[in-house]
Amino acid sequence: MDKAVIYIHGKGGNAEEAIHYKPLFSNCDVIGLDYIAQFPWEAKEEFPLLFNSIYRNYKTVEVIANSIGAYFAINALSNQQIEKAYFISPVVDMERLIADMMIWANVTEDELKEKKEIQTTFGETLSWDYLCYARENPIIWEIPTHILYGEKDNLTAYGTIFEFVQRTNSTLSIMKNGEHWFHTDEQMKFLDEWIIKSSK
């Protein structure tokens, strides 16, 4: 095979999820990125090394990235030789997401700055370092990208996705009633059809 597709999972996911995409790319090797990074600054160290260990065996590489995996990819792989990217429910504005979570948790910026980390009732830990990193490392992404977005995504507002699409000249497909996490039979069928269409 001359071509590889690298799958980058989201939070709580794993590299084994790449198996789902193998039938959709029958002429490529589909490889799950088995990473341990929990934060974007860790991904920035880890991802290029993992990417290059795969890329050196192929002529071209494409990337599929899910949710926070897409944010990590944008943050860590923007300078790599990626032919095309497919982002599923991507987090494209981490500063905005953290700000939204602070509102949901009723936490002010001064409180977060003072405490550094605050545990929320919805299972996320707010981090001052993470907020600062997101502010200090604005996104630059020039790789041809197709984006799949669920109409009812509870993490990323449509306006945020639309702004990213405009800025990066990406294509956008929206699943009516789709959620942030694509997992039902109907959602996965939509996802598969979107990938087949976008990969042509």
TrEMBL record:
Keywords: Hydrolase. The keyword Hydrolase applies. SUPFAM superfamilies: alpha/beta-Hydrolases. This is Alpha/beta hydrolase. It comes from Blautia faecis. InterPro entries: AB_hydrolase_fold. The keyword Hydrolase applies. GO terms for molecular function: hydrolase activity.
